[in-house]
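Please decode residue identities from the backbone states below.
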């Protein structure tokens, strides 16, 4: 069941939280795109070769505005909110990353985009790998930023890492604990997984809290984590079939995954460059947007 009424996008725009993060250029258009049994809220702007930007947990597609503005001069930039997140629909099922990758492939189909470059962060990395593995001819280049992939490299170490306890935090009682306390829950991520919590300012925290406090939003965010065991099964099958061959740039925040990201991607891809985003923890676009943008744009260029 979808928790989003077709044709209701105008109403949603009026009740959406006031924008506290950098806005997208006014030239970007918003579309609600039906894909793979759901509907995604998608920002599209610019012209030229396509690039798809995928966000993770604690953010929405809004995080990419600074990079999208720079890319739009010579790229068609496509920025969806993932299934069950932001202003996209909230279906009951479908949160394996292999299925969410098919959501994104469907968005590309609807926009008549055959091939695209890809930039991803956090859970977006997991969707991005499933997209590139299932549709390798459609992804020409991939920038993957600061999060592991379920089931590959040293994933078991992630499951016992105190900093990633949230990978196993889901269920009806956990939802009851977070209900009405979404800001407290999100603050934990912004404060503990950043190098500079002060750079994730009050307006940004309030913006994302309002989005994650929407009906069913935390449930669906937890469904992303709940799907990790199946994602691991799928990822090992993808890797066994073939390594990715397109150029990959693996970036980690200096105070987060750092240079280790290259090792994560070396496990699933054969043409990987590594890099480190300086003076940043996990929240790369909030902590060092210019440094992140420079590395991403140089690789895509």
């Amino acid at each position: 069941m979808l928790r989003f009424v077709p044709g209701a996008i105008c109403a949603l725009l009026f009740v959406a939280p006031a924008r506290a993060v950098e806005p997208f250029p006014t030239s970007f258009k918003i579309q609600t795109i039906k894909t793979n049994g759901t509907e995604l809220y998608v920002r599209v702007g610019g012209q030229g070769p396509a690039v798809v930007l995928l966000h993770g947990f604690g953010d929405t597609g809004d995080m990419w505005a600074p990079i999208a503005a720079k890319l739009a001069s010579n790229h068609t930039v496509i920025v969806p909110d993932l299934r069950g997140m932001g202003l996209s629909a909230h279906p009951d099922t479908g949160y394996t990353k292999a299925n969410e990758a098919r959501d994104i492939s469907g968005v590309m189909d609807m926009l008549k985009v055959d091939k695209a470059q890809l930039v991803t962060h956090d859970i977006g990395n997991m969707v991005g790998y499933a997209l590139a593995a299932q549709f390798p001819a459609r992804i020409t280049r991939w920038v993957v930023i600061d999060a592991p992939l379920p089931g590959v490299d040293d994933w078991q170490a992630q499951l016992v890492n105190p900093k990633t306890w949230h990978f196993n935090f889901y269920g009806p009682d956990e939802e009851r604990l977070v209900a009405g306390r979404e800001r407290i829950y999100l603050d934990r991520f912004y404060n503990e997984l950043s190098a500079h919590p002060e750079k994730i300012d009050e307006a940004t925290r309030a913006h994302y809290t309002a989005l994650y406090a929407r009906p069913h939003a935390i449930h669906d965010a937890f469904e992303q984590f709940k799907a990790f065991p199946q994602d691991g099964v799928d990822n090992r099958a993808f890797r066994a079939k073939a390594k990715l061959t397109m150029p990959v740039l693996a970036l980690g925040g200096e105070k987060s995954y750092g240079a280790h990201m290259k090792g994560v991607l070396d496990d699933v891809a054969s043409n990987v460059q590594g890099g480190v985003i300086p003076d940043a923890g996990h929240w790369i676009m909030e902590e060092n947007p210019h440094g992140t943008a420079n590395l991403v744009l140089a690789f895509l260029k």
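Observation: The CA atoms of residues 158 and 164 lie 6 Å apart.
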